């Protein structure tokens, strides 16, 4: 377990803060007049997703969180729980509260493989690919003259997620989505 000094607490690090795992979103080291330098950070709790601002002073250290990853298959979401099973050990099933992982699960087809981050052997959150390919379940027909909005329409994907797609996208097409922004990037194949 590495110990990080105040100036090593940088974005993308996962640290142990108050015995909880946090991902460092941003850090800014500055020195106020006649004072010792401070690292002002934004931390996101790995489980709840809650963001807090913490300042670390020059004499402070934190432990790097002991995070492991395992591969798991997304099974389904039901009654507010999203269920997964460890890839090589399907009997090891676990769930996350749907609202904690919804922004990621909405892009997952059944049996998609994801990385699960574990902390002290307990599943904490999932990491999904930045780009996924999904089938368009429903796309309204393009209406002539409806190009005011830059020529997009709202389509529903096979996972239930809704995204704006260009007018030429039809039901059954496979599209690529950027999961960070939730935006359509390209059509992969035509129905």
Write a brief structural summary.
This is Elongation factor P C-terminal domain-containing protein. 4% of the residues lie in helices and 57% in strands. It is mainly beta.
Write the layout of secondary structure elements.
Elements: E1 3-5, E2 14-17, E3 20-30, E4 38-45, E5 51-57, E6 61-64, E7 67-78, E8 81-86, E9 89-97, H1 98-105, E10 113-119, E11 122-127, E12 131-138, E13 152-157, E14 162-166, E15 174-178, E16 183-189
Antiparallel strand pairs: 1-6, 2-3, 2-6, 3-4, 4-5, 7-8, 7-10, 8-9, 10-11, 12-13, 12-15, 13-14, 15-16
Poorly predicted runs of 5 or more residues: none
Query: Order of strands across the biggest sheet?
Result: 1-6-2-3-4-5
CATH architecture of the largest domain: Roll
Order of helices and strands: EEEEEEEEEHEEEEEEE
Q: Provide the β-strand percentage band.
A: over 45%
Number of helices: 1
Number of domain modules: 3
* C-alpha geometry: flat
Radius of gyration from CA coordinates: 21 Å
CATH class of the largest domain: Mainly Beta
| DSSP, total strands | 16
- Class by alpha and beta content: mainly beta
| Largest sheet descriptor | 6 strands, antiparallel
Mean pLDDT: 91
Distance between the termini: 51 Å
GO biological process, one term: peptide biosynthetic process
InterPro entries: Elong-fact-P_C (IPR015365), NA-bd_OB-fold (IPR012340), Rib_uL2_dom2 (IPR014722), Transl_elong_fac_P/YeiP (IPR020599), Transl_elong_KOW-like (IPR013185), Transl_elong_P/YeiP_CS (IPR013852), Translation_prot_SH3-like_sf (IPR008991)
GO cellular component, one term: cytosol
Family: Belongs to the elongation factor P family.
